[in-house]
Amino acid sequence: MIDRPPVLRADLHVHTLHSRVNHDLPFLHSRDCYSRPADVYRVAKARGMDLVAITDHDSIDGCLELLDARPGATDVIVGEEISCRMPPGKIEVHLAAYGMTEALHRDVQSLRGNVFDVIVRLREAKVFFALNHLLHFYRGQIPLADYLRLLHEVPAIEARNGTMLRAHNELLERMAGWRSAGLSGGGAGRRLAMVAGSDAHTLRRIGRTWTEAPGTTRDEYLANVAAGLGRPSGAHGTARTVARDAYGVIASFAASLVGVGPADHAPLHRAVCLAFVVLSLPFEFLPIVVASAGKHQELRYVRQAAEMLPRWLEQQDAAPDLRALGERA
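The structure assignment produced for this chain is given below.
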């Protein structure tokens, strides 16, 4: 009998109430998620996750809160989803970094205007990171071939996101599997490492999409994921997935206005938000409409990327150096 190395699981893309800003309706001051870190930990463990990662938007406070409650915990991955901009098109780009510290978190905040500056700082700190949901924010701001040159700069890609379409995730997994010096940013024969996570903004989907990798400890697991031994597993996303998350956040926002959950609003603003919630009830079909339109657009760019990728792989050296373009922008 062959002894197989132990395998650990972690959902490497999860949010808590420390993802504070929802940009869809900013005047409401709604959070992007209302899940408490302790509940995220409990649900992740109940669903078979050996390690628990939190990747809040531009914050590690959820991780620190969890570690305060569990001093010395060795099964918590301090992550952060860093929101950046990619010049010259100013496309929003999200990098998931694992093994963050308070000092490194502070350092990257002033660099987020240029994703390449953030990448340089993370590499200096020897922190493993991945490019999340590649085509989520792409809307033709720059030529797609130019945008895809981001893959030269990152050690890993999120090859399965629990809110992205199967076609999107499968394309990214194929891209990660192609052996190319240009794609890997290193020598020939290397690959982009792969991560996967639910991108859960409610408790409902935590641990439904995950990354498996060999290891017996958190550090071994992350080292093996970084070495390309991670395997994406679990659910893909649909318009229904996104809409149900949106409805969950809306419900939690409404509950917070009547005192259940974080108190984010002064009395007058709370009254205005409550009035808005009541008046918007007849329009609560909109999240599924918006989600469906978004998935239609996502599929369009996935198909465009799939069609042009073989040609791009042959001609990638002809594409401009985006870091140089960013410096001139």
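Interim note for the steering committee: The first strand starts at residue 7 and ends at 11. The radius of gyration is 20 Å.
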